[in-house]
Amino acid sequence: MSFLLKGLIKLYWKFIPLHKRRPCVFNETCSNYVYRTTKEQGFIKGLLAFNERIDQCRPGYKLIKDEKNNSYQLYLKDGSIIKDDNISPTLLPTSIEINTIKE
Question: How many CB atoms lie within 10 A of CB 87?
Fold first, then answer.
């Protein structure tokens, strides 16, 4: 069954262009994470990884700057906190406002 899940992810990669995909909040994209987990641990763990990622980042998040450490933390809707080394660089601000919820 893992070949089916990996095949669906490969189809997604092939037929959905990068510019049409919703940006991932994680440094390792959700599809890469699910693919890797499925390849290493099997179909059930891959499905659980998919469900975990969907629960964590949808429908929104909150990016907070830690002034003391000059770093960022991403607070996800499920209560998880992601440290800045695992946050996608595309989400880290250059000059955007922090402490806002993205929907």
Answer: 19
Spatial contact of 81 and 74, defined as CB atoms under 8 Å apart: yes
Report the share of the chain in percent with pLDDT over 90: 31
3-state secondary structure 62-73: EEEEECCCCEEE
Instruction: Give dist(CA 57, CA 101) in Å, integer.
Output: 12
Spatial separation of the C-alpha atoms in residues 3 and 63, rounded to whole Å:
36
d(CA 75, CA 98): 12
**β-bridge mates for residue 75, sequence order:** 62, 81
What are the sequence ranges of the domains in the chain? 2-102
pTM greater than 0.70 (yes/no) = no
* Mean per-residue pLDDT, 70-82: 82
Residue 15 exposed, middle or buried by CB count within 10 Å (0-12, 13-18, 19+): exposed
d(CA 54, CA 74): 15
